[in-house]
Amino acid sequence: MQDGPYVLEARGVTKIFGNHTALDAIDFGLRPGEVHALLGENGAGKSTLIKVLTGAYQPDAGGVFVDGAPVTLDNPLHAQTHGIGTVYQEVNLLPNRSVAENLYLGHQPTRFGLVDHRKMEKAARTLLERYGSALDPASDLGSHSVAVQQIVAIARAVELSGKVLILDEPTASLDRNEVERLFEVIADLKKSGLAIIFITHFLDRVFAISDRVTVLRNGRPVDTRQLDSVSRTDVVRLMLGKDIAFPAPPISSPSAPPPTCCSNSNPMAARKACIPSI
């Protein structure tokens, strides 16, 4: 990823709902060939900013720019025509239809006024091969894992848009192996020059795949940093606006049982007891 002009940009974007300012003069820029993480606590403004960038919301002030030119995005379908696609945690496709139908829904190839299934499945097979998948395009999408459905959704979004891909919590329902596979797909897309916004609550995944990070807090921009110049502690401090203090374990007698947060018998309790929520 090189420094250069932004493919997608928010300049001074403000969004107000009644008496609540959800976004307050947000500046955000995305470059081709980068994975840019967008972080913040719940309510920080991440989802609202994404909805402005995809045309679901109209800004009350400021504007959205694509390749340096101002654009008015009427809705997410209109955003697709400007090269902006989005994939959410919950795959918004049709599980009872085939993989090929989901990939080309709304723009199926036709022959004599009818859908040309043979041509569509051939095109789907070729498209999926770019993602390292030998998936049967005639199989029902719902018969596959969430991870496979995510890759199909990404392939569709990139095919329809091809310039910007927004991934909103794409790894939340995936296991470790599925996350690694998805990250391989993201790395390949990044090499091809696609610009990617990555939203997640998992900091380890941010550092595994992202180039830059922008942190929002209370609807305001806090900072944008190169990931290789900050630590996880730095990012958490930016998100919370304060340092993190880890409490010292209580002093106990040798015969006393270890505190809950040090017990191996209850790892979930350990996580909740010893690690501050972000």
Explain how this protein is built.
The protein starts with 7 loop residues before the first strand and ends with a helix. α5 (146-160) runs parallel beside α6 (176-191). The strands form three sheets. A six-stranded mixed sheet has the order 6-9-10-3-11-12, with helices on both faces. The protein is globular, with a radius of gyration of 21 Å. Residues 258-278 have low confidence and may be disordered. It has 278 residues and is of the alpha/beta class. It has helices at residues 46-53, 76-81, 99-104, 117-129, 146-160, 176-191, 203-209, 232-240, 267-274, and strands at residues 8-17, 20-30, 35-39, 61-66, 69-71, 84-88, 110-111, 114-115, 164-168, 195-199, 212-217, 220-226. The protein has two domains: 8-92 and 162-244, 3-Layer(aba) Sandwich (Rossmann fold); 247-278, no CATH class.
Give a topology summary.
Blueprint: E1 8-17, E2 20-30, E3 35-39, H1 46-53, E4 61-66, E5 69-71, H2 76-81, E6 84-88, H3 99-104, E7 110-111, E8 114-115, H4 117-129, H5 146-160, E9 164-168, H6 176-191, E10 195-199, H7 203-209, E11 212-217, E12 220-226, H8 232-240, H9 267-274
Parallel strand pairs: 3-10, 3-11, 6-9, 9-10
Antiparallel strand pairs: 1-2, 1-4, 4-5, 7-8, 11-12
